[in-house]
Amino acid sequence: MNNTSNVREREFSAYDINLDHWRAEKPFGISGCIRVRNEAQFMRASVESFLPYLDEIVLVTQPSEDNTVELAHELAAEYSNVQVAEYPVIPAAPLTSEHINTPVDSIYSFVYLSNWALAQCRYSWICKVEGDVVALPTFAQVREQIEASPDAHRYYGMVILNVAGEDGTQFSATNPRNAGWDEAVFNNDGSWYFIKNGKWETIQHGEYAGDNVNVGWQLIHLKRCKDKYLPRWNGEVYMPLNRQNLAGALGNYNRRSPYPGPDDPFGIDELFDWRLR
């Protein structure tokens, strides 16, 4: 990692990243790392879907216009393995010129926020997801693979189905899934960390390379179900969620962005049985 252990703005020195602590050996387990801002609508659904599979969930809150921060503390009071780590500012969002021009060691850098968030996790593996993502029962397969190879150095990428509509019974035919790598489980030893990559932030490994393994369809993304994005988001085409519609949409999409995982999504009943409400 580059020199990002100390935050640039020294009035925020309490948010320095302790690299020795981050790199230290940790007890076996999986920490969920969920960065949340204005995620109150689906945050409870997200947290509760992951609880059966994770040893802790760290909700890294940012100042919000809704009751995200209050709800995070409610969940921590309700569940002993949910923790809250409050970040003091709203960082520059990826895809913006502000993000591009903000140094990565600044408290206002989304890259710094993300690395600080990872460093708050206590267990030997980290599951990095967002506050509008819910786990399918297939996520148990990820846990099983990690338990079978607890000392492996590995990055497990996961595919997300982009459901849509008020009740989540539709999906985005324009963008039916993510790339399969953004939501992931990886080692918590400081060797996987965020960097600024142009207008984006991306994870890379540090001193030594690990294996990249895509474990397939594990998650559902609720972004297109949020009140503020109804009836549809970004001009996308939505279709009823069923096997026939998804097969057609994936056939078109996979020619543009090849599917990286080993699973046949049409054999996963949970993709089609799942309902938001």
Low-confidence stretches: none
Order of helices and strands: HEHEHEHHEEHEEEEEEEHH
Helical residue percent?
10-25%
Helical segment count: 8
Determine the CATH topology. Spore Coat Polysaccharide Biosynthesis Protein SpsA, Chain A
Any idea of the CATH class?
A: Alpha Beta
The overall strand count is 12
- Counted up, domains total 1
Radius of gyration: 18 Å
Give the biggest beta sheet.
Answer: 10 strands, mixed
- What form results from the Cα inertia axes? globular
* Beta content: 25-35%
Mean pLDDT: 93
N→C terminal distance:
43 Å
CATH architecture: Alpha-Beta Complex
- The secondary-structure class comes to alpha/beta
Topology:
Blueprint: H1 19-23, E1 30-36, H2 43-50, E2 56-61, H3 68-78, E3 82-86, H4 97-101, H5 110-119, E4 125-130, E5 133-135, H6 139-148, E6 154-164, E7 170-172, E8 183-187, E9 192-197, E10 200-205, E11 211-224, E12 238-240, H7 243-256, H8 269-273
Parallel strand pairs: 1-2, 1-4, 2-3, 6-11
Antiparallel strand pairs: 4-8, 5-11, 6-7, 6-8, 7-12, 9-10
